[in-house]
Amino acid sequence: MKHVLEWRYLQFALAFIGLGLGIYLTVAHYVSPALLVCSNSGLVNCARVTTSPQSVVLGIPVAVLGLLYFLGMLFLTHPRSLGSWRLYPWRYAYAVAGIIFVLYLVYTELFVIGSICMYCTAVHVDTFLLFALIVTAARPELPVRQTKKEMASYKAGRKRRQGRKSWK
Amino acid sequence: MPPLNRNGPTSSRKGKKVGAGYNYRPAGGGSWLNPGYLVGGVVLVLLALILIKIAVSGSPSPASSTAARPAPAALVRSVTTIPPATLDAAGVPSNITLPVATPAKTPLLKAGGKPEVLYVGAEYCPYCASERWAMVVALSRFGTFSNLGIVTSSATDVYPNTHTFTFYGSTYTSKYLTFVPVETYTNQPVPGGGYTTLQTPTAQQDSIVSQYDTSNYIPYLSSSSNGSIPFIDIAGRYLVAGASAANLPPALAGLDWTQIASQVRQPSTTIGSDVLGIANALTASICNSTGQQPASVCSSPVIVKAEQSLK
User: Fold this and answer.
1) Domain residue spans of chain B
2) ipTM score assigned to the predicted complex
3) B-contacting residues in A 44-103 (Cβ below 8 Å)
4) Range of the domain at A100
5) Do B38 and A114 touch (CB under 8 A)?
6) Which residue from A23, B14, B83, B244 has the highest number of Cβ atoms inside 10 Å of its Cβ?
7) Is residue A1 situated within a structural domain?
8) What pLDDT, on the 0 to 100 scale, is given for residue A141?
9) DSSP string for residues in A4-69
């Protein structure tokens, strides 16, 4: 079985890279699309994608959603978090939710906007790699709860051990 | 608490639920949640999207922009009859870039004995698209528009398909000023790049743009932005180049004319605040050019205060 802490730094690094891209796209969204060092014509047209109506979902810029997503992912993929069996289902669900949103964004770029954004694609690739690493990573070991019989046996043994100590 | 069974479950309990406790299951397994299936599924969906797009069109084709057509009377009415109280409520927000005053010895721009407001823009231009909403509101306070058209900005430029008016073919009548709009290009692209020519500026208009639409007269322009559109020359006394509110073009994204017009009448919205604010700034500069006429407009406290802010 793969050790659960394998690839721990790669996941965290990918989350960090995604956060950097998210910050860049968010700043460009609020300042000016001209900040993006990218083609502005043809198939690759960053300004067109980032200024399209589809760049805002439920009133929130997609760039900001990405930034928040990677902030959360940074926490979930922190090396200390990776060993936690409690966080594993959250990390799994988070990665799945992220990739579903990426599929929606790719569809929007190709079929609605008609252009693709270089930096958005980099974020999508980053999200996909995180998704692939997270869902294929081994689940941290779950604590095994004892049966009622084992609990009773343990308690009986504990009483005997406590009794011996008191005699000393 | 009893110590955990760090050696894993006993073989007799392996894979079976026991009481209310958890069972350890190794990652993977044969269920549909197999990670390989999930990752492979995502890859397949992505490939399918790309292949479908290529098969359907060969290359992604952007939505086309809307060609110009006459503006509905109700739309024009809603934008040209904004109550003074609504305009006053908007004031001139701090995010608005005010018109720049020309040096004192700059020749005045006149036509027909009246101050001339020269506008040079293009139908494809998204920043012109945002600025025209404010221009219609402002100029309606000094005169009357006829035959205004509606159009969308370029579908392939930034802020694609921004819904707006077009001044091409319109008529403006006023006893206080002359409005001369020049829409240089349409929003219809031509093979090889660029857009269809619509109106050609006169030699005088070209000269004005070459001289005044520069960083020498408009400090916030960089030298690489000389000749920016929209360009507005208000009687040779004030100049505007580019969008007067940076957050207005994105605010207009995805909205149709009716939706925009509705928000224009609400100063509490971003669109309302920006459009009305720009309109007030333009009004103040026009009032300075028309000798504070009409008094009903130029005596408004908001306009008087805005005039004092104009440099």
Assistant:
1) 32-61, 69-309
2) 0.75
3) 45, 47-48, 51-53, 55-56, 96, 99, 103
4) 8-167
5) no
6) B244
7) no
8) 62
9) TTTTHHHHHHHHHHHHHHHHHHHHHHHS-GGGS-S-BSSSBBHHHHHTSGGGEETTEEHHHHHHHH
